[in-house]
Amino acid sequence: MSATSGTAAAEQEQTGAARGPDGVEPPVLEVRDLEVSFPGGRGNAGVTAVRGVSYEVRRGEILGIVGESGSGKSVSSLAAIGLLPDYAQVKGSIRLHGEELLGLDDRTMARKRGHAISMVFQDPLSGLTPVYTVGDQVAEAVRVHNPQISRAAAHKRAVELLTLVGIPDAERRQRSFPHEFSGGMRQRVMIAIAIANDPDVIICDEPTTALDVTIQAQILEVLKAAQRETGAAIVMITHDLGVVAGLVDRVQVMYAGRLVETGTVDDVYYRTRMPYTMGLLGSVPRLDQDEKSPLIPIKGNPPSLTDMPPGCPFAPRCPIAVEACDAGEPPLEQVGGEGHRAACIRAGEIESNSWTAHDVYPVSEIAHDPVSQVPREDRGTVLRVEGLAKHHPLMRGALFKRRVGTVYAVDGLSFDIREGETLGLVGESGCGKSSTLMEILSLDKPQQGTVEVLGKESGRLSNRERFDVRRDVQVVFQDPMSSLDPRMRVFEIIAEPLRTHGYAKDRIRSRVLELMELVGLDGSAVTRSPAEFSGGQRQRIGIARALALEPKLLVLDEPVSALDVSIQAGVINLLEELKARLGLSYLFVAHDLSVVRHIADRVAVMYLGKIVEIGDVQSIYRRPTHPYTKALLSAIPLPDPEKERRREHIVLQGDLPNPADPPSGCRFRTRCQKFAVLSEDDRSACREREPELRHRVEGAADQAAACHYADTEGSR
């Protein structure tokens, strides 16, 4: 063999693929006509969760798979890596480097998993063993496929991998257990395990869903670095269309177990031919739109896979469905450039008429609340918080406990909410948002500071006054399933606060039906239990219950974070409609700044128990002055491939500091991108003096930031 051919053979062995006769590298992973079904129990029909899915991915390519919950995304990925339960029935073909994987026994597949193909799961805590250190678990992944490597060499490799994925002080932290890491750090460990043996394919199943946006940005950078290091093909499964826009090369949209549109990311985003894809893109709140407009909700719910409708499965929810849509399920056909295909009989009309999402999904404008036209200073104050603090003692000892520190959950918050106004309270997990809500809702005297609700100070209320105030302040929680009693019918759930406050029986019934109509639900459904509703419908029931007593202030704790984006849009539109119609005020807590941009009038940004920037929405989003606010906004991905590719993201280093031991001076300085470029003299102010919340920008009287070197006109 010549030296040249030997080099080529070695290169082929290294890349795992030889180029075909046309010079195009063959797919690393090729899935054809994949069908996955699960048998039914006790005479019930089985469920076909994946129906005829085909795709391929080449080395160095990133394929995005998107769709609502239950569309079959995760099941198809688990089939590819051979992790479905034994009772699952899998048909079709799954080839890795041309080798058929279906039919291989567990022992053979185990040799491939983690070596040739690996996976990053959605929940890293359940993916890691709690009783082994993270270093041992990474080293185990190395030795399982390379038994000739010594334990010492495997641990050395583990430290290298943990350093590669951005674990600080990896030599020391590799001795930590998973529970000692934050969610983002645990996900980094999962990525380190996934790339430990330089796999050819990495499947990422919603790897950033449960993470803060700043940590999400870090993880996406780690994935890009991992791909550069290994050259692997990546299959990214997610519901976040912003993540897909800036990361992937090709997109596949799934609905009811099958592909309904596929193509390059530009084709799918800019030349959409499937109404479902249009609805998904139109339902996403966007940071790059100055004018607020109603989001596009996709009405209804995905079909039951045990009772599929005739014809196109999306037809019952499609606003442009015609009679022919019920005749048969449309095939996935080419609709534009090479590789762009859609499963819709009206795809040609969409192209020829240049229909946009708003053409397909006409949404009426939301009327403005008359109160919003009144200047802010002339409106009454619904909620006033001054110097609010909540400190938790940090105790140690089993029998004889002693105080060893203090957790500064909330440390000197001040803000107010006026009539007809929405204040968005944003920040990473652990910044004190939920603690702030609990202090407000308890109506007890706070440890420090004051809380005034409708002019009445908490802690100085009689029992009767507290009872009356609770009528005017209601809350909607994050998880609608856990906040609704599963043993009660919907009628009883909504009627309970009415009975508590002495409403007459005949008035209760009419009021419950009135509320169901108000939140867009059928009144006949009040006899059903919460389990019989979708997530979005359950959240509407929670809103109906909160509105039962005609409150003046609604506290919303992450009300849409647990919902699919298409369902989320309907709930956001509903909240805006109710605010305009009923003159409500909202305290809206969220970590998604794009949602807050859409619904809020003012924004308060929290970090480690303090507000670091506050002001009206336009000022905060157009000209943020605090480095933390800039980083938060930078980390929000845009569902626009061209814009997302051009953006420069500010990726914060590390995680939120321990609230029991906050940094001296400015609490953000340990992660601050501006602090890193300051001179040593300027840094001393950040280390020694805590910045005050002060108005910084000329012409923006409602904007204030707590930073010694905030970006302002004429500032340094």
| Arithmetic mean pLDDT | 88
Low-confidence stretches: 1-17
Could you state the CATH homologous superfamily of the domain at 28-248?
P-loop containing nucleotide triphosphate hydrolases
Which CATH class of the domain at 28-248 is shown? Alpha Beta
Read across the widest sheet, the strand sequence of neighbours is 6-7-8-3-9-10-12-11
CA-CA gap between termini: 66 Å
Radius of gyration: 27 Å
Helical proportion, percent range = 25-40%
Largest sheet: 8 strands, mixed
CATH topology of the domain at 28-248: Rossmann fold
Number of helices: 26
What proportion of the residues form beta strands (DSSP E)? 15-25%
Counting helices, strands and paired strands, the structural category is alpha/beta
Shape: globular
Please name the CATH architecture of the domain at 28-248: 3-Layer(aba) Sandwich
Work out the number of β strands: 24
Give a structural overview.
Among the domains are: 28-248, P-loop containing nucleotide triphosphate hydrolases (Rossmann fold); 269-360, no CATH class. The strands form four sheets. The protein has an eight-stranded mixed β-sheet, sandwiched between helices. Strands 18-19-20-15-21-22-24-23 form an eight-stranded mixed β-sheet, with helices on both faces. It contains 26 helices and 24 strands. Helices cover 34% and strands 20% of the residues.
